[in-house]
Amino acid sequence: MNARELYRSKLLTIPEAVGLVRSGQSIATAMAAAEPTGLLTELGNHRDRLRDVTVWVCLPLRLYDFILKPEMSGHFFVENWFYGAPDREVHPQGRTSYIPNNLHQASSGKLKASQGRVNVYWGTATPPDAHGYMSLSLSLVIEKQLIEAADLVVLEINERLPRTLGDTQIHISEVDHVVENHVPLFELPSAHPAPWEEAIGGYVADLIEDGSTLQLGIGGIPNAIASLLVNHRDLGVHTEMFTTGIVDLFEAGVITGRRKSQWKGKMVGAFALGEQRLYDFLHNNIAVELLPGYITNDPYVIGRNSKMVSVNTALQVDCYGQVCSQSIGPRHFSGTGGQLDTHRGAQRSEGGRGIIALRSTAKSDTISTIVPVLTPGAEVTVPGQDVDTIVTEYGVAELRGRSVKERTEALIQIAHPSFRAWIRDEVERMGIVPRLQVPGYETQTPNPA
Ligand code: COA
Fold first, then answer.
1. pLDDT by residue (tens digit) across 11-50?
2. What global pTM score does this model have?
3. CA–CA separation, 92 vs 366, rounded Å?
4. What is the CA 135 to chain-centroid distance, rounded?
5. Three-state DSSP state, 242
6. Does the beta carbon of 138 lie inside 6 Å of ligand 1?
C-alpha cells in the first residue's frame, strides 16, 4: 500500500473517531493552537454513552461543551497542565483540576503517574507529503511522548496548519486513524504596546546585549518587548513559545542566530501561538526548528546558550523575591509552564539573565503587584532562591545573591510610588526586615491584595 492508500484506509469521520472512546478511559490532547478542535467539539455529543472519561489538556483555546457545560459532570473530568480563560470559569464547578508541573517534565510526570499509559491521543497534523510524512505543526511540547504512550492515536488533519520543521514529522503508519477538519487556526492577536509596557520594554531592551539568545514568554509584556528590540543586532531565539514578535525581528534582520552557541543560525522552540502571519512564517521555514519540550525547556540545555536572556511576566512579587505568575491568591489562574525552566536555564548560561517583568500595579492602579509577602494561598512560580532580575515601569531590581533587606529596598524602588511606604511599613511591622531605610515615601495606601 502506498502512502496515499494507507492514509485513505485510516480515514474516519469525526463522530466515528470519537465513537472509539470508552467509559473510564483517558484521552490526552495536543495543546494550544495544535488542539484538535473537531474531535474536542464532538466529544460533548457523546455524553450519554460515556462516563468517567478523563481528558488531559494544556491551554485549551476554544470553548468546548465537554469542559463548559455543567451537565457534563460525571461524564468528563479535565486535568489541565495550563489554564486558559474557560478553565478558570469552570474550576469553581469542580470539573477540572490543575496538574502542577515544570513544562520540560510535564508529559513524563503525568505518564509516570498513570503507569506510563494513556488510552487515546488526539492531536493535529498537516496532510501527509508524498512519502507519508505529516508535520505535528504548532506544538511539540508534550505531543510525541503522548503519542508513543497511547494505545490509540488519532490525528485531525488540517491543510491550513503550517508544515513546521525540526522533530515534528510523523509517518502515517505510526497513527491508527485520521480525520479531516480544515478549519481556520486559532489566532492570538498582538496589541500595540501601552505606554507602561513601552517603559518596561525599554528597561528590558537595555538589559539585552547584542548577540544574546532570547526566550520570550506568554503575556502582553513579552510581546511588547519584542517590538522594542528592533535596533539590536544578531539576536538568537531559544524559546518555549514562538510569538508573532519574532517574525518582525527576523524580517528586520535583528534575529540572525549567528552568535548562538548551539543551534547556530536556527530558532528553536516547542510551540507557536500568535497571528496567522506567524503561522505563515513557520511554514517550511528552515530557520525554525520545533523540538520536544523536554529538550527546549531543560534548564541544563538552555544554560548551554551563552548570553541567554529569559523574559517572563508575573502577577505578584514579594520582598523575599518569590514570584507568583499562576494564581491570584488561592484562585488558580494559568500555570508554571516553562517559566521556572527558562528562568533557571538563563541563569545557568554564561552572561545570562532571568528577567521577570511586570506592571507595578493591577486592577486600575488600586493594588500593588510588588507586595511585602505573597497573598495567602498564592502559588510560587519562581522561588526566592531562584529569582534574578525584576523589572517594572519604574526600573530594574537585581535580586540575585542579595539579602532580603537588599531585595526589599530594591523592590520598593521599583514599586508604584503610592505603595512604597505601605510596603516598607508592612515588612517592618511583620519583622521581615526591621528598620528599613528607604527615605521619602510618606503615602500610606492599604493594599487590598
Ligand atoms: N492581583 C490581582 N489581580 C491581578 C494581579 C494581582 N497582583 N496582577 C494581575 N492581575 C489581573 C489583571 O488585572 C488581569 O485581570 P483582568 O483579566 O480582569 O483584567 C489578569 O490578572 C491577567 O493579568 P495580565 O497582566 O493581563 O495577564 P497576561 O495575559 O499578561 O499574563 C501571566 C500574565 C503572568 C498570567 C502569564 O504570563 C502566565 O501565565 N505566566 C506563567 C507562565 C509563563 O510565564 N510561562 C513562560 C513560558 S511561555
1. 999 999 999 999 999 999 999 999 999 999 999 999 999 9
2. 0.95
3. 25
4. 21
5. strand
6. no
